[in-house]
Amino acid sequence: MARIRITAGGQVFVAETVAAAPKTVEAFLGMLPWRTQLIHVRWSGEGCWVPLGDFQLGFGFENATVYPAPGDVLFYPGGYSETEVILAYGACSFASKLGQLAGNHFLTIVEGREHLRVLGEKVLWKGAQDVVFERIDD
Q1: Residue 82 and residue 90: Cα distance in Å, rounded?
Q2: How much is the pLDDT for 104?
Q3: What value does the CA radius of gyration of the chain take, rounded to a whole number of Å?
Q4: Structural domain tally of the chain?
Q5: Burial of 137 (0-12, 13-18, 19+ CB in 10 A)
Q6: Given 12, 17, 29, 48, which is the most exposed site by the fewest CB atoms within 10 A?
Q7: Domain range spanning residue 85?
Q8: Any idea what the CATH number is for the domain that residue 10 is in?
Q9: What's the pLDDT tens digit per position in 78-135?
């Protein structure tokens, strides 16, 4: 299990990888360190996302869910909608303009969860926020 530091919108979180999504975890770890921006979701409720357009993971679903809990991070491998990463900070039902989607639950925030709403509301009211995902050395 790898630990990931997520720094965004003045908040720092620690997440752990999810064993039930080994291919997604491996692909994500290969992207680190990853600097990008979080924007607020459009259809999914209380969440922030990183749109990845036509990026392809090279595989489909594993450990997929439509209803991430606050602190769950999903990687949607593309298909019906563009590829994306979504971070739930509250009530979330993963969806696109085409309807419900399922994403691979591959990370769970284990430290800093109490600051998720602060981040989500900042993204909602202030706009895109820089985010950095980096592996924490074991």
Answers
A1: 22
A2: 97
A3: 13
A4: 1
A5: exposed
A6: 12
A7: 3-136
A8: 2.40.100.20
A9: 888 899 999 999 999 999 988 899 999 999 999 999 999 999 999 999 999 999 999 9
Predicted local distance difference test score (pLDDT) of residue 1: 87
* Closest by Cα among 41, 50, 60 to 100: 41
Contact assessment for residue 85 and residue 49, using Cβ atoms and an 8 Å cutoff: yes
* 35-57 mean pLDDT: 94
Region 11-30: mean pLDDT is 97
CA gap 111, 7 in Å, rounded: 12
Residue 103 structure tokens:
């994403």
CB-count burial class (<10 Å; 0-12, 13-18, 19+) for 128: middle
Where do we find the tokens 């630990």?
3
The 8 Å CB, 24+ separation contacts for 53-58 are 53/82, 53/83, 54/78, 54/82, 54/83, 55/83, 56/83, 57/23, 57/24, 57/27, 57/83, 58/27
